[in-house]
Amino acid sequence: MTDRFPVILTSLLGLIAVWWAAAVATADPSVLPTPAEVASIFWEEASQGPMLEHIAATMMRVAAAFTLAMGIGVVLGYALGRMPKLDLWLGPWVAVFLNIPALVVIVLCYLWIGLNEVAAITAVAVNKTAMVAVTVREGVQALDKRLRDMGQVFGLSPMARMYHVTLPQLWPYLASSMRNGLAIIWKIVLVVEFLGRSNGVGFQIHLYFQLFETGYVLAYALAFVALMLMLEYALLAPWERRATAWRRLAT
């Protein structure tokens, strides 16, 4: 990570420079404020305003939906990958849920369950579970049967084969599901909050959208983007490199 940090930092600074140039060219803070103006709004909202409370509410929903989607999706995907007959019957169901628009699921959950936390988290989890299941199913179907046979020859127990043979091969697929899941889930959570919650980053964006406050919309959006980038580069990326280190050693 340390050798990549200068490149990542330079890339982000370049993006900020492009944003600043566009803001100067627009010359209208109500349309596109400069990064300095957005940073000032962010500091005010974080130090004196309710930003941290709303970020915490959004993070709670992201964590709950992410846990549900990953838990159900991994179990379902593994079962579909190991049992072709089950995949034959349930595969079309997964395809249907994979292609239902997130907005439709959100609206239906609010109509059926009500404007509450259960509906919000359920809507987000349902939208992501099918994607996790498909990714894990592909990983299970791509498992090297020779390695499985080798584990049996050496007399490994089912749990040992799962830990030493199956999981190392599935880590790239699990890591991909986690990374994509986190990126997609928090965006869907914002839509859920935009449509039917009384707190959270999405609720605040909805509020300032109605007030035509572009700077506040950008401040709240970028605050959460920054938090997700921290999770990506501080937790997910290092974990994925450690989990797949055996592949690099093998080559």
Description:
The chain is mainly alpha-helical and 251 residues long. The protein has a single domain, classed as Orthogonal Bundle (MetI-like fold). The chain is globular, with a radius of gyration of 22 Å. The two termini are 21 Å apart.
Any chance you could write out the topology, listing elements then pairs?
Blueprint: H1 5-26, H2 35-47, H3 51-82, H4 84-99, H5 102-113, H6 117-141, H7 145-153, H8 158-196, H9 201-210, H10 214-243, H11 245-250
Helix pairs in contact: 2-10, 3-4, 3-6, 3-8, 3-9, 4-6, 5-6, 5-8, 6-8, 7-8, 8-9, 8-10, 9-10
> Taking all residues together, what is the mean pLDDT?
84
The H-level CATH homologous superfamily, spelled out, is: MetI-like
Percent of sequence in beta strands: under 5%
Could you say what the CATH architecture is?
Answer: Orthogonal Bundle
Rg calculated over all Cα atoms: 22 Å
What overall geometry do the principal axes of the alpha carbons give?
globular
Question: In sequence order, what are the helices and strands, one letter per element?
Answer: HHHHHHHHHHH
- Uncertain segments are none
Number of strands: 0
How many H/I helical runs? Answer: 11
Structural class: mainly alpha
- Helical amount: over 70%
Report the sheet with the most strands, covering strand number, pairing sense and barrel closure. none
How many structural domains does the protein architecture include?
A: 1
Alpha-carbon distance between the two ends: 21 Å
- CATH domain class: Mainly Alpha
Would you tell me which CATH topology applies? Answer: MetI-like fold
